[in-house]
């Protein structure tokens, strides 16, 4: 059938190699992150522009200069909301009110994107196909870094554009944009670095996000405790106060931000070479010592799956709320001396800050966001397992989808109670340390009162699992994160009450300062159940992916 | 660069250890340019690990690997000579088959686009679909088309046909034959022994990370035992002593007039013994490749 020609004849007929394999890889990476970049840039730019503009209409000039000085001086205010500088300026107010939120959003997105385009591609085996071409592993990592740094720059530019569109000062806008964009860059570099260290994408994402949030905690401690002020230099969030856009407009601290981006980026690029493709620098054991006894029933399996994440989230939430407890007395003293800010805080969604119960209640309402995110993340993991075909074998057994997803949801629901309770305990421990007079019952009650909001998140995530399985995480965090933002904006700018009423937080009583809002609680549980039921119904009948 | 001087694949006391697992141990092998080499072994023997070492995806614990004289870890040079098809092909779910092919051509060692279009036709691939909508076999076809279209001097194929239907499988064998005809080298790991028998000129057998045999297919058959069946015209009690001859095993008398035996090595002594009796029929059956491999693999379990 074939005639054997001498081997040499072939080599001459070979097509020439394309000039730069890097270009093809770069195009692919851009394609993988461009949609996310666009969404985050629009969110960050839109949110900041919106708040700056609303400020002009509502309270420019309402705050006196001496009150501002007092606000800026108070350690508790600084710890929780960041340093309050130039509140008389729409730009300064926007930085104070949205700076941390925008930076956290951009940073976490970039960190997740960083692990996705590096560790995720290796885990899926797609990197092998590229690396069998003329591409070094180090080139892949450098490309990912380059694209993510550019994405960060785009996000920063969106913030600058938004602030300029709202008519704020140019220098402040550029510095603020540089900080938000720089946070995204640092997050992206951290994500890529974590992808070099850890073998599983999920753990790598967790590691990168944990490091970012530890930076936020360091910022809080550094703002609250004068002797630890140097901690502010360790994270992009702390640098926001050092740069102080619209107030002091210092550019020099941005050099530190450059270092915070460069160190993980260079480490990632160095660690990319000389390792096995498909496994990180840190390898776990390949064998477990004893088989887990939990894996013999569906409920046991569900418990097995939530154990580790519940512990991690509890540790994180516990650390934050311990700090919040420790700050109780400083905060109360300040608000007693400056009633103007009690009002301002009430406008910004922190009513009744004047008593320790009111203080705790205000901050417990924030607890709904991480606990809700925990619930949404667990259901998103179910969707991820499905897409990666890890559920196919399970569902080939006599296991109904509703039964398994139901057990999973029950385990996550119990997990939300655990995480919230740990937050309450930590607050109580911190407050007791400084003799703030917060009872254990009050602290636990206040923390547990936000569980219905987290269950709404669980319900929304299950709804998405049934009907929009690509967007479980985003839909799942909406009731908590979106609802919180909606309440703050509605309260700050006096929006109509029906808009405010869309937020679950509008139906949350300030426990322990007020008694539990039973109607609100029952209503939220009912909505959560309806969402969950609708989601499970959709999940039972739709096609499995993967 | 003179690829003709260096072997296509050179493994020199290559070893890889994962924690406590010795996946590949002291593996030395040279595959000259132009050869179609079959790489065989039971599950977990270390075939994929060896291939990933050859591609520079894994770092060897000991030894080294070369592709046409270029060190495997210098991937920019070494990968100019090769194309690869992995055991299970994962593609970018959002890209179409055509986009995947373009991407792989962009990072690969140069692609003959006219030949690629021809291959798309021959393999019956619909390149307009998104990869998430492909079946297992169709994903594999994308990788195969991308690899063959490069005309790279070395094709590294790790179980490339495990999900292909018989028609595509036949097309695959034709492509291998064409590649061999052009002088390309093929390094093929496969569990489909019929395929190996059809396309390979030489095979290596890996067991528990060690290379236990490298031989041409003919040579392998010759080395292995053949099954000899003898029919006699009348009983020959003198033939009992045949069991004691060198290379003879498993002597069985099915009837007093018929015996079978397994013979390894030169048949001279057996023929001399048979020459003294009245043989009606003599049947020598070569072992199938499958029997040979089962023999090799089986010893892994023992
Ligand atoms: N990343 C890894 N970590 C730990 N052990 C591994 C890893 N990759 C492979 N191994 C081990 O190395 C050995 C060889 O695996 P390899 O994948 O090379 O086998 P194979 O010959 O390709 O098998 P198959 O025919 O099933 O594809 C096995 O014991 C396997 O468990
Ligand atoms: Mg294999």
TrEMBL record, chain A:
Region: Disordered; residue ranges are: 1-22
Say yes or no: keyword Transmembrane helix present: yes
Q: Would the keyword Transport be found if you checked this record's keyword annotation?
A: no
Q: Which residue spans traverse the membrane?
A: 36-55, 93-112, 144-167, 173-195, 207-231, 251-273, 311-332, 359-383, 404-431, 443-465, 472-498, 518-540
Q: Which domain of life is it from?
A: Bacteria
Q: Which UniProt keywords apply?
A: Membrane, Transmembrane, Transmembrane helix
According to UniProt, the name of this protein is ABC-2 type transport system permease protein
Taxon lineage:
Bacteria, Bacillati, Actinomycetota, Actinomycetes, Geodermatophilales
Automatic annotation (TrEMBL), chain B:
This protein's record includes keyword Cytoplasm? no
What sequence ranges are listed for the domain ABC transporter? 9-233
Provide the primary localization.
membrane
List the membrane topology term(s): Peripheral membrane protein
Among PROSITE patterns, the record links this protein to: ABC_TRANSPORTER_2
Give the record's keywords alphabetically.
Answer: Antibiotic resistance, ATP-binding, Nucleotide-binding, Transport
Which Gene Ontology cellular component terms are annotated? Answer: plasma membrane
Q: Which Gene3D superfamilies match?
A: P-loop containing nucleotide triphosphate hydrolases
Single GO biological process annotation from the record? response to antibiotic
Q: Which domain of life is it from?
A: Bacteria
Where in or outside the cell it occurs: the entry states:
Cell membrane
GO molecular function terms noted in the UniProt entry: ATP binding; ATP hydrolysis activity
Q: Does the keyword Kinase apply?
A: no
Question: Which PANTHER family does the record match to this protein?
Answer: ABC TRANSPORTER ATP-BINDING PROTEIN, ABC TRANSPORTER ATP-BINDING PROTEIN NATA
- Protein family: Belongs to the ABC transporter superfamily.
Q: What is this protein called?
A: ABC-2 type transport system ATP-binding protein
